Amino acid sequence: MKQKEVTFIEEDQKAKTSAQTIPYGVKSIKAQKVHKHGYAGQNVKVAVLDSGIDGKHEDLHVTGGVSFVPAESDPFVDPHKHGTHVAGTIAALDNKVGVVGVAPKASIYAVKVADENGDGYYSWIIKRD
Q1: What does the pLDDT average to over 28-50?
Q2: Rounded to 5, what percent of the chain is helix, strand, coil?
């Protein structure tokens, strides 16, 4: 039966969950190939200057951090979630959960320079004691 309100019907398909997703960017640069040869970010340190990094995220191992945001002293709390996303793109663990990053064995450091709204000031960093 045809209805004028319906412009398209897609055939029902089976959906399958996956334990870990390989993001498009990781696939497109063929990071998995270099991971298999032992190049996965070992001995690489990356500072993520953003809104902090969720220190309890199951896909991340955050090595250290500092906050430059006056009212938010904990770099391991990220209410804005942008810093956590960036850290995951860089170094989400290859742990069969969630996603995998470009360099899953890199050391990640949270440098909180943006508040819960994603805003920050250069003066916060410049004036740091």
Answers
A1: 95
A2: 20, 15, 65
Rounded to two decimals, the pTM is 0.81
Residue 112 and residue 69 in contact, taking contact as beta carbons nearer than 8 Å: yes
Q: Name the band, by pLDDT with cuts 50, 70 and 90, for residue 7.
A: confident
Give the C-alpha distances (Å, rounded to integers) separating 79 from 8, 11, 63, 70.
39, 39, 19, 15
99 within 8 A of 120, measured Cβ to Cβ = no
- For residue 8, give both structure tokens: 């398209």
Per-domain residue ranges of the chain: 41-126
| Each residue's pLDDT tens digit, 19-32 | 688 888 899 999 99
Minimal CA–CA distance to 103: which of 112, 115, 94?
A: 94
9 pLDDT band, cuts 50/70/90, is confident
Closest CA to 95 of 46, 57, 53: 57
